[in-house]
UniProtKB/TrEMBL annotation:
One Pfam family it belongs to: FUR
GO MF term list: DNA-binding transcription factor activity; transcription cis-regulatory region binding; zinc ion binding
CDD domains in the record: Fur_like (cd07153)
The name this protein goes by in its record: Ferric uptake regulator, Fur family
Taxonomic lineage: Bacteria, Bacillati, Cyanobacteriota, Cyanophyceae, Pleurocapsales
Keywords: DNA-binding, Iron, Metal-binding, Repressor, Transcription, Transcription regulation, Zinc
UniProt xrefs under Gene3D superfamilies: 3.30.1490.190, Winged helix-like DNA-binding domain superfamily/Winged helix DNA-binding domain (1.10.10.10)
Binding site for Fe cation: 113
Cofactor(s) required, per the database record: Mn(2+); Fe(2+); Zn(2+)
InterPro entries: FUR, Fur_C, WH-like_DNA-bd_sf, WH_DNA-bd_sf
Amino acid sequence: MKAQRTRSQERILQLLKNVKRAISAQDLYIKLRKSNQNMGLATVYRSLEALKLQGEIQVRTLPNGESVYSSIHQDQHHLTCVNCGNSIPIAECPVHDLEHQLEQSHHFKVYYHTLEFFGVCDRCQLAQDA
């Protein structure tokens, strides 16, 4: 049985679906305030945590430690530069079959997975070589 969502959770989930990209809790809070949806920052964080635990949204931690949130459209995978922090989404998913195998063998319901490679992007490589 799915957990009953609060109005705050519904508003946040709808905004994440409309934004169609990962966004920080602070940026989410600012967008809500600008659209006259008064909600405290603590409520934003509580709602994001509840939605994450329900498997409704996914969280990604950037190299600088900041968490960004997005609705679960599909698996998200990235190449992330440790120098400039730029993240390049990649479409390939080499672990999709593994996810299904793990669900079967461990009787574990996977909500989503992320795959992230860390390195140095082409622009930073050029700057280092200069």
